[in-house]
Design a protein that fits this description.
Blueprint: H1 13-19, H2 22-25, H3 29-45, H4 51-70, H5 81-93, H6 95-99, H7 106-141, E1 147-152, E2 155-161, H8 162-187, E3 189-190, H9 207-213, E4 217-218, H10 222-227, H11 230-256, E5 264-266, H12 284-307, H13 321-344, E6 346-348, H14 350-357, H15 364-373, H16 378-395, H17 404-410, H18 424-430, H19 439-452
Parallel strand pairs: 3-4
Antiparallel strand pairs: 1-2, 5-6
The chain binds arginine.
Length: about 450
Amino acid sequence: MLWGGRFSSGPDPEMMRQSASIGIDIRLLDSDVASTRAHARALVAAGLLEEEALWAIDDVCQALLSQFHLGVVSPEGDEDVHSFVERFLTDQLGETGARIHAGRSRNDLVATDLRLWCKERARRLVGSARTLVEALCDVADNHLDSVMPGYTHLQRAQPVSLAFHLCAHGFALQRDVIRFQAAGAAADVSTLGAGALAGNTLNLDPSVPAEELGFASTFDNAMDAVSDRDFVADLIYACAMCGVHLSRLAEEMVLWTSSEFGFARFSDGWSTGSSMMPQKRNPDMAELLRGRSAPAIGDLMSMLVLLKGLPLAYDRDLQEDKQIVFAAADRCDDALAAATRCVQELTFDRDTMALAAASAGSWATDVAEWLVRKGVPFRTAHTATGRLVAALEERNLPLSAATDDLLADIHPELSTEVRALDDASASMAARDSSGGTAPDRVREQLEKLRAAL
Ligand code: ARG
């Protein structure tokens, strides 16, 4: 027990059962051990601990980690990871162990532990998101001229390449990479030396543990240091946004692999069957990715609501942040890995995509822009092309079969030259404006994505 001097009876077991966090924060063991070793160095620098005690603490810390990972020691009745580590040190080192908590509170300790964990997790998520972007780029490489319909309102709009479409997801995920990096930077502040809320009387230098732990900086205000969980919210937000991106990608995989679209098919290993309908090939993993964005968004709400209205400084409510951020980060990392496999396990049907891209009217914007290049104002061109679409629809004719008379009747500038625009691949390739879908432009986009990796 880390406290109790002023109480005549011990805590009620039921209260301890419900308030203990060891089952969750044991994941901070590595961080807590590192923080403890770093704090010991601050005590040495302040002349409060002998140099030799430091080596003893380091050894026991090392022993704790190895014995814990071997399953030789485990928390027993310890309230949280901090009390577990301190008890182990005191058991092993007696008075030296009992000196370690000087000038330190679990309030500044838990903040530093969690910052270490979030930094490490953010780094890992950066890697996982990059792997997915890379997988998208690799598939895109093979589909620079695979034409498919681009959609707005889920209605066929203009022909695009599959590579272009995959790059669009790639850029969204690249922004997630930046968000994970930013979340890691937000966590990169040491709070050791803040004490419970107002610093200490022991002349502890916060830069000593900060340097030891590899933090970029130290806290400015001790009260803020123990109250601040913005860095946790930042990481959860990055996970939520990434979850939303994965959900949108997953939704497209569901559409593409449907019989209605028929654009793609998951490998057998990444498809699921039906217990009743033998013919089914279901995209369950993509649906799960889509579904798991729900708790990803929920976690962000939980974290923000947890913080809202908390008086400064530390409040026990803050203990609840850990299960939220652990779940959010684990889920996001798993989802990125699954999405990477999903992208790799899709086979695209170029013919079906091309056929859909060439459907009636997919050339309409091209014809309107052709008229604009002839000097016709766009609004006039738009109306004329709309009439052309209707006239051809009525006659059940493709643009390539439009007659001179029909065209001239619709607009005097229209000539049979526009028949050539009835070609989805050419239409896709002609959109070579900056950031457009033409293969050369998409090659630039791929280069940009890869350079960012
Ligand atoms: N288990 C606690 C948490 O995770 C540690 C800090 C407890 N501090 C306190 N003053 N009760 O937040």
